[in-house]
Amino acid sequence: MLNLDYDRLSRILIETGTITAAPEKWGRVKACSAGLIHVSGFDYPIGFGAAITLADGRDIGAEVVGFDGGMTTLAPFDEHAAIRMDAVVKPRLDSAQVDVGPMLVGRIIDPLGHPLDGKGPVGSGAQWPLSGKKANILHRGRITEPLDVGVQAINALLPIGCGQRVALIAGSGVGKTVLMRQLVSGTQADIIVVGLIGERARELSDFVAASQDVGIAGKMITVAVPADHSPILRIKAARRAAAIAEYFRSQGKSVLLMIDSLTRIAHAQREIGLAAGEPPTAKGYPPSAIALIPQLLERAGPDSETGGFITAFYTVLADGDDLDDPIVDAARAIADGHIILSRELAEQGVFPAIDIGKSVSRVAQDIIGGQHAIALQNFRSLWSRYAENRDLITMGAYRAGSDEHLDQAIVRRADQLCFLKQQVDEKIGLGVSIQNLVQEFGE
Predict the structure, then answer these.
(1) What string of DSSP letters covers 100-145?
(2) I want to staple 315 with a disulfide (CB 3.0 to 4.6 A). Which of 89, 261, 340, 362 is the partner?
(3) Is the separation of the CB atoms in 82 and 55 below 8 Å?
(4) CB 145 within 8 A of CB 367
């Protein structure tokens, strides 16, 4: 009896003309634990797609996430499906590619590309790798041009450049979702790609309705998956949104990518990683969850070859307002800037509740002029002076006249808070924002 492995036998049969192509390797389910499926005879790499045949004859999708001895570990797209022992597992050869193109504009799709908006099939277009195309890092262009986002506090005090990646960090109930809507409706871009990952189903409906009200639905592509779906689908939704944005950047378009939220994506990877046997680290996150953050963020930015760029905002939920959370820290470290929302300001009725002292745009000095830079420095100086002495001021321990700079910071505090305030449906352009800042806080 010949002792040949599968790959060698396939090559011999093809070379002799017995078969024209290597047959597909099918596997069988042998175990299920912690939401993951262990399959024998399914020799495919990590990230490869699969179809598991259920007891009722239907197929559900799955993805290879690891290996355990001689078994291949799969994460199913439906954790509650009726999967039986020895169920057949087939490969999905097209799982690493996504359909991209103009047919997606104005549509709402799920992580697998299926329509959610009731407008019929999306249609096929060009193909783009789900995990992106590797490119020469020297082709990543510099950020030298400002971008109008329609929010005065950001335009003037945290200027955003074309192709910048920004982490929007906030605790729960501080106005993160509302600010995200303002940015989506106010930012000047050819294409808007929004990934709504792991949020409440009600919020998904609200966001879609709000985008239609402001008239941007015609240039927006939405990839949505609610919190009750499997963790692998939440991760695939983020990757699909990034792949779509990359395609339009390759066409020379200016793209706004909004991912809400990065924390839910990390939670999804934590579920998969821990179930697959990875060791937990800080706050229970396995190494793969932390490593996923730069993989997603590095896909955005400018492309010097095509002239297109992806300006990206990634919302990050600071659990318990903890700004030292591992996901918050990882996002803040890799992004080109971060915007932190303050619960204290939100409680005072200041929206957007941006803490200017703790927020920063790392490209600001490359994209602003001289007068703007002076006014910005004056504003931040007064803000930080007040923040340093806030306890003394609120307790009444500070005596006016002791510090001239602090006296000015106290007097101008109301003006600063007024400068931050903006109605949800109000748009303030870049030029007007800078002019208002220079007039009020310039020398």
Answers:
(1) ESGGGTT-EE-TTS-B-SSS------EEEETT-----GGGB----S
(2) 261
(3) yes
(4) yes
